[in-house]
Amino acid sequence: MTPSRAVDAFARRHRYSPLEALPWLAAFAAYFVFPDYLALSAQILATILFALSADLVLGYAGIVTLGHAAFFGTGAYTAGILAAHGWGEPITGLLAGAIAAALLGFLSGLVVLRTTGLALLMQTLVVATMVTEAANKASFITGGDDGMQGMEVWPIFGRLRFDMFGHAGYFYCLTVVFLCWLLARHIVHSPFGRSLTGIRENVPRMHAIGAPVAQRRLTIYTISAALAGISGALIAQTTQFVSLSSLSLERSGTVLIMLIIGGVGRLYGAFIGVPLYMIAQDRFSAAEPVYWYFWIGLLMVFVVVFARGGVLGLFDRFRR
Amino acid sequence: MGDTLSAALSIGFHGLAFAMVLYLISVGLSVTMGLMGFVNLAHGVFAMAGGYVLTSLMSRLGVPFLPALLATAVAVAAASLPIERLLYRRLYGGEELDQVLLTMGLVFMSTAGATYFWGPLQQPLQPPPWLSGAVDLGFRSFPAYRSFLILCGAALVTALWLGIERTRFGARVRASVDNLRMAQSVGIDTSRLFMTTFALGSGLAGLGGGLGADLLAINPSYALQNLSYFLIVVAVGGLGSIRGPFVAALLLGTADSGFKYLLPEFGAFFIYALTMAILLWRPHGLFGRA
Question: Of A119, B137, B183, B259, whose CA is between 20 and 30 Å from B97?
Answer without folding.
Answer: B183
